[in-house]
Predict the structure.
Amino acid sequence: MEPLIGYSALIERPPLRWPDGARVALWVQMNLEHFEIDAPGMSLPPSRSPGPIPDPRNAGWRDYGARVGIWRLMEMLDRHRLRASAPTNDQVCDYYPEIIREAVRREWELMGHGFNNSHTLGGLSREDERAVIQASVAKLSAAAGRPTKGWLGPGLVETFNTLELLAEAGVEYVSDWCNDDQPYPIEVGGGRLIGVPYCMEVNDIYAFVGAGMDGESFYRMMCDQFDVLHAEGAHTGRILGLCLHPFIGGQAHRAKWIDKGLEYIFGHDGVWAATAEEISDWYYEHYYEDALAQLRERARTAFGNSDAPDR
């Protein structure tokens, strides 16, 4: 089966230039989520499956993000004059309207993120998945007072229909596929779609829950990631996507080191503090058409018109 996203070798792309000659586009993905009390969710290791219902240990940990962690992280981003791109479950609008109010007041971007984080798109029929995507996009657009252009699936779960259904719903970029350091076009049957990736590893779930890092180690990873991307960005621009969850990165002992990492990054020239939507808009305006043509030409020459593998 042909991959859902066509291959593009970095060395074959023309140089990418960010506004004002920046080398690195920094975007912060702040996940705003709701978990059902009687359904599985993100759990502290060692995970217990199936866990007790109710599960005060893990449900309380997740709930900390909406009660405390998000406000700590909002204040931190305010200090750095950073606006987040926030994958937002549409039920956050119902359960935590204060968070939506403050995110919108700060001009954060709300990205589609399903209706809650206890349910993914996995296993849904095409029609059921279409309904979830369209309802989520509509609800967040109404809450923000502007169109929702981005999407991150709950748990990064997709079906083979997801990308076309996103484009059909007017979504312009997706961040599920963390496979690049630049935006890239995605071929869909109708509409248009690009990938604006972040990094799965510069991610508080992977680092703190998965790999068991402490705050200082995460800080060093942020700095190391930035150093390499900043050096490479002298030739062609790169993205540094920082993924945070208020119940993980918003813990006091971790937020301290994330704050220090941002201080380090902004101590350098050539950094564009952007939302994912701003990155997407820039790419569409300056690179999309040529990149899509290059992608199609590679597919044509690699497989031929009649020998391309089934998608």
About this structure: The mean pLDDT is 94. The longest helix spans residues 56-79.
